[in-house]
Design a protein that fits this description.
- The chain starts with a strand and ends with a strand.
- Helix content is 28%, strand content 29%.
- The protein folds into three domains: 86 residues, 3-Layer(aba) Sandwich (Rossmann fold), CATH 3.40.50.20; 55 residues, Dna Ligase, domain 1 (2-Layer Sandwich); 199 residues, 2-Layer Sandwich (D-amino Acid Aminotransferase, Chain A, domain 1).
- With 375 residues, it is of the alpha+beta class.
- The chain contains eleven helices and 18 strands.
- The strands form four sheets. It has an eight-stranded antiparallel β-sheet. Strands 3-2-1-4 form a four-stranded parallel β-sheet, with helices on both faces. A four-stranded antiparallel β-sheet has the order 5-8-6-7.
- Helix 1 crosses helix 9 and helix 3 runs antiparallel to helix 4.
- It is globular.
- Bound molecules: adenosine-5'-triphosphate and magnesium ion.
Length: 375
């Protein structure tokens, strides 16, 4: 095994590429954007769409194993190639189930994994809202990301904003907090679970803001969350790392929100804080190697560096020197050529002796660093 192909050249692909290079592999990227974040560090980039069957065939046939850094890709093309004997991980048939939030939740339900109550909503079926009952959350079945394609409908008055297309309706959870757990599965079916992340969201954009690890929760809840992530991985199978997003309601009960069959924003902290990063773990798994230890060496907080709301153009990190003087700070920039409002441009991981100290330093970092456009 020599060459790993990655469909998608964003920041997740970039960090996967670095991990693959560390282990001695060659990497080829498929991405439509020239000089993509991952393409900059890989051996080769094929310029093409993640949905183009010709480009997908090109990368898959050139590589010993192919994986991906996003889920909105042409699964039918990948399934055909897998059936012809090409190695693609995680299994594109699993990806196809996960791509559609309704089939994803149905699989979890069949396997007895706790999830909020849900139903399918056919396009334009208004009666479905009344039959299900308010308050509810309407979700587009495919193509949603970063909170796009998710709408809270509290009552009949909100129906005018309803999302178009085939959707699912989900019971609105009275949220106390949201958690994330990374979990990996090897070719031989071994499963390794990571520590539990406490996730907080940016109120303006609904994008993940901070990930605090270990989450400030009880031992009991930690174990339950890790078990849910483990059971979720078993429910889908597949080889690689998965990100499992969890809800904790006001009674302290847990349920699965969604699954990403790839490295996840809530697992960035593993680069500095764990023996094996989520990216290395993914590469190990898809390459058929033994999984590494998920042991966390230091408490940490990850902060997403998003483009400031009014800024557009060549990115500039204001406050760079000041934050790099802090010994707890580790900076990752993704090499994106243009900043846009709330675009994920990089992240910072703060590691410290205690979670409280890591949170304190992160608050300071947040007040200093800004991604603006070069003037
Ligand atoms: N059933 C629910 N009850 C309460 N809040 C919910 C529910 N479903 C989603 N949310 C809120 O909306 C956010 C986004 O939902 P979800 O994770 O399904 O969307 P996404 O756009 O696919 O995800 P991402 O932001 O991870 O790309 C959740 O993190 C949560 O804060
Ligand atoms: Mg989500």
């Amino acid at each position: 095994m020599k060459t790993i192909g990655i469909i998608g050249g964003g920041q997740l692909g970039r960090m996967m590429t670095k991990a693959a290079k560390k282990l001695g592999f060659n990497v080829t990227i498929l991405d439509p954007g020239e000089n993509s974040p991952a393409g900059q560090v890989a051996d080769k980039q094929i310029i093409g769409s993640w949905n183009d069957p010709v480009a997908i065939r090109e990368i898959v046939t050139q590589c010993d194993v192919t994986t991906y850094d996003l889920e909105h890709i042409n699964t039918d093309a990948l399934i055909e190639l897998a059936e012809q004997g090409h190695t693609i991980h995680p299994d594109p048939r699993v990806l196809k189930i996960i791509q559609d939030k309704y089939t994803q939740k149905s699989r979890l339900q069949e396997c007895g994994v706790d999830i909020p109550a849900f139903v399918k909503q056919d396009e334009g079926d208004t009666q479905a809202f009344y039959d299900f009952g308010f308050p509810l959350v309407q979700k587009t079945r495919t193509g949603g990301y970063d909170g796009k394609g998710v709408l809270v409908i509290k009552s009949e008055e909100d129906l005018e904003k309803a999302l178009p297309g085939p959707c699912m309706l989900e019971k609105m959870v009275d949220l106390k907090m949201e958690l994330g757990v990374m979990v990996s599965r090897s070719l031989t079916g071994e499963i390794v679970t990571y520590p539990v992340t406490e996730m907080t969201f940016d109120d303006r954009s609904n994008i993940l803001d901070l990930c605090i690890v270990p989450g400030r929760i009880s031992e009991e809840l930690t174990e339950k969350a890790q078990k849910l992530a483990h059971d979720t991985m078993e429910a889908f199978g597949g080889v690689g790392i998965f990100g499992v997003e969890l809800f904790v309601d006001k009674n302290g009960d847990l349920s699965v929100n969604e699954v990403a069959p790839r490295p996840h924003n809530s697992g960035h902290y593993t680069i500095e804080a764990c023996v094996t990063s989520q990216y290395e773990q993914h590469i190990r798994a898809v390459a058929g190697l033994p999984l590494g230890s998920s042991l966390q060496a230091r408490p940490s907080v990850m902060y997403n560096l998003m483009g400031e709301p009014e800024e557009e153009g060549i990115p500039f990190v204001a406050g760079l020197k000041e934050i790099l003087e802090l010994p707890e700070v580790s900076l990752h920039m993704y090499g994106k050529k243009e900043t846009r409002p709330f675009r994920k441009m990089g992240h910072i991981t703060v590691t410290a002796d205690t979670v409280d100290k890591a949170v304190e330093v992160t608050e300071k970092v947040k007040s200093i660093v800004k991604i603006i456009a070069e003037s």
